[in-house]
Amino acid sequence: MPSPHILIIGAGQAGGRAAEALRGAGYTGPVTMVGDEDEPPYERPALSKGVLLGESGPESTFIHPRDHWRAKDIELVCGVRAEAIAPASRSVLFSDGKRLDYGHLILATGSRVRPLIGVNDTLGGVHYLRTIADCKRLAKDLAPGKRVVVIGGGFIGLEVASTAAKLGLEVTVVERQPALLERALPADIAAQVERLHRRQRVEFRLGAGVSALMGTGGNGGGRVTAVGLADGSELAADVVVIGIGIIPNTELAESAGAESADGVVTDEFGRTSVEGIWAAGDVTSHYNPMLGQRVRLESWQNAQNQAIAVARNVAAATSLPASTPVAYSEVPWFWSDQHGVNIQMAGLARQGAQTVWRGDPASGRAIAFCMIDARIVCATAFNAGGEIRFARKLIESRTPVSAGDLSDSSKKLKDLAARTEPRVSAVGAAAA
Predict the structure, then answer these.
(1) Which of 159, 239, 371, 401 lies 20 to 30 Å from 387, alpha-carbon distance?
(2) Which residues does residue 368 pair with via DSSP β-bridges, in sequence order?
(3) Cβ neighbours of 431 (radius 10 Å)
(4) Out of 3.40.630.30, 3.50.50.60, 1.10.1760.20, 3.40.50.300, which CATH number does the structure's domain 126-242 have?
(5) Whole-structure pTM over 0.85, yes or no?
(6) CATH of 340-431, one of 3.30.390.30, 2.30.30.100, 3.40.980.10, 3.40.50.150
(7) What are the pLDDT digits (tens) for 110-141?
(8) Are the C-beta atoms of residues 350 and 318 closer than 8 Å to each other?
(9) What is the pLDDT of residues 337-347, one digit of tens each?
């Protein structure tokens, strides 16, 4: 029997890694990857850092050059949007009018920026940052001496603030919550990130909502001149960058009948509720056996490693007889570079956790552990990325450890982690 056609919708990092992993797993049948951007699969983290700074070109973010996919006999279709899935006939209709059949479908549709509702975000000088095209437009506006207001105190906003400050702009970050990074970090750890920025003259307006974007030219266009805040004050602005989160692109899956709850719901193997349809990356709300809960992760690690794991399971499902799928189960890992400081996080922050510091945060090199019942649930390393792998092992194994041992820098974290054997994930060493 001929091998089934595997169709991947989404040609970003998750889609690209899934296609690559199918070939790596020995699947030799037809593979088609379709994306709505004009570029081949690429990774997004550098868009707010090196590419925006002008230190590297957009092509440096490509997972592989365009001709790589042809060499691997993977059909790459760019600039085309999937319009509808017909699960009964196992086919997908695209914006160019073509319909493709599939044996297995992998949804790697990712996410889109969350718009700031109620303001005129069409003014010149107002930007969102998600794609290479967004990055190119924003880079043209970031001239030294200009005043930039960043709306949103999450990672994307703070990375843009760091880049803008390095380029010589006057930077103010507006965050409606009373602390930065509220979804990602406890306030006492996020305060260390805030201090990094303040040392570089970045200003903050915390607990401040945005009511309007003002500009020249009235409603007919023009450029932004100020950001109006809910308390009636205004911030002068030549450039505004909005980074208030992302929205998973679940609509296509939902229209096909797939279960959705803050993401396309999948099991630990990447299967959706619709037969023959799988999903990976930002768009998924997937069950993580290690954490014992369902999560949706917006990270480089998840876009890559979940896609690899799901693709391997799809390849296994095509074999005769079908092989047993392997669960994707890893400690979440995130990273960010801000003002020359590398920040790495492992695990997930939880309410009520105790914070234990290893090293002096003021020194520029330290690790903050979040602990519940003598077990680490989250670790944040500042310029101590070499240690984060040991923290991940302690989180994964749920090994009890005392706060005293963690705070004592004379006791190697490697030795504390050596007390247990960590479990092996579906992707294994690829997570490092």
Answers:
(1) 159
(2) 357, 380
(3) 18
(4) 3.50.50.60
(5) yes
(6) 3.30.390.30
(7) 999 999 999 999 999 999 999 999 999 999 99
(8) no
(9) 999 999 999 99
